[in-house]
Fold this sequence. Notes:
Pathway: Cofactor biosynthesis; NAD(+) biosynthesis; nicotinate D-ribonucleotide from nicotinate: step 1/1. This protein is α/β, with parallel strands linked by helices. The chain has helices at 3-8, 18-30, 58-66, 72-79, 92-99, 129-160, 175-188, 197-203, 213-217, 222-232, 246-262, 277-290, 306-314, 326-329, 441-453, 474-487; strands spanning 36-42, 53-54, 106-110, 115-116, 123-128, 165-167, 193-194, 238-240, 269-272, 297-300, 321-324, 340-347, 353-355, 372-379, 382-390, 400-403, 411-414, 420-423, 425-430, 433-434, 470-473. Strand 9, helix 12 (277-290) and strand 10 form a beta-alpha-beta unit. Helix 3 packs antiparallel against helix 6 (129-160), helix 4 runs antiparallel to helix 5 (92-99) and helix 6 (129-160) packs across helix 7.
Amino acid sequence: MKITKDLYQGSLTLLTDFYQLTMAYAYWKSGKGEQEAVFNLFFRKHPFQGGFTLAAGLDFVIDYLENFKFKKEDLSYLGKMKVKDGSALFEQDFLDYLENLKFSCDIDAIEEGTVVFPNTPLIRVKGTLIQCQLLETPLLNIINFQTLIATKAARVNLAAKGEPVLEFGLRRAQGIDGALAASRASYIGGCSSTSNVMAGKLFDIPVSGTHAHSWIMSFETELEAFEAYADAFPDQCVFLVDTYDTTNGVRNAIKVGRILREKGKEMLGIRIDSGDLAYFSNKARKMLDEAGFPDAKIVASNDLDEHIISSLKTQDASIDVWGVGTKLVTAFDQPALGAVYKLSAIKTESGDWEPKIKLSQQSLKINIPGAHRVRRYFTKGKAIADMIYLEDQEINERGIVIIDPTDATRRKRIMPAFYQEEELLISIFKAGKKIYKSPDIKQIRTRAQSQLEAFDPSHKRLVNPHLYPVGLEENLHHLRMSLVLKAKNFENGENES
């Protein structure tokens, strides 16, 4: 679907930080604007203190890039910007340059629904410095949020252990855009449906919902409300039973369920939205079974997340379907993924690619130089390790060592000849032309489920997950270390400390 066209009626090229435009102007002014570079988009830590992350948002990125163009009204707005003396901030020749600018980068990316890990490039951008720089903010905006929510959804669904999870966070989401993106990412992460009707229409996601307490309160009695609802929707009755008294609500649902049955229809279930969910679900299950409704489902909601669901599971709560809203679509316990976008290589005047390093007092923030590929190794369908390696590096099939980018003492030896492998970074755009066939959202969701199944349960634990091996191929590790030492002047016997 065309997100930009349908939702925003045109280009989103000004959806960027102001300093991206000032840098673009400075690149142009200095004559470096057409110099080629490579940038990587990656994150440094798993969200939610987890052991995995689920990539999402690529389809939005593709749509953004296919509509990348500065419109006349965009340039008019930029042309009105002034400096202190009243003169124009941007020269007209630069604005003319932007007007004629056509997206022409190479984009490699990891497909949506793929399990990913820190320091792995989710997107690699190769192109002119100006274009690469202008893409930083929108790509981060898209990937950061959708990857975060897809990961949260996957965690919630893992806690539910195969039982359906309904996403209904629209009313609590971070605005219209946040709600739509969250519904999409939640479905990718495993939710079976959404309450968000617009997301259902735009992204082909199943929609679901019952009724609110206000429906009950608008009638003289709860029983009347249930009867009226059953009259309106005899084939999809799920009654909200906790408006006044949960136990009595279940009794009234049973009464109306019997009326439906006399008409050849069947009550689908009840929903409990407050109170002690373990206690009331078990009590409701007993009442429904004794009344002859063993197939009636019990839906639970009320500020659920993966931890509460896990707790209810350990209490043997009789809950069949989980309704999750606020804590899913807002990523309640961690509101940002923290992905970054860093320059990793630049082409010199001689035509050679020069790897670039960014130093930091925090080793976690030292980037990985060069243009990379990412390879995942499998045995018997189970993932055993990921390797980040230089694009032009030949891999020794008889044996390689991968080295953790944050702790060089953590190493793993792999014999590639004995394993299956998958290249994770695939080509999406070549010279600005899309060459990738986008899967539909159901295919993406299926990929996410199969990806998660390929990892050992220890990596998917909600608390204290086991560390999955992700490492730099030895040559890349040595390149990185040599650049770090050179930048710190150790080669000259100097040390800034």
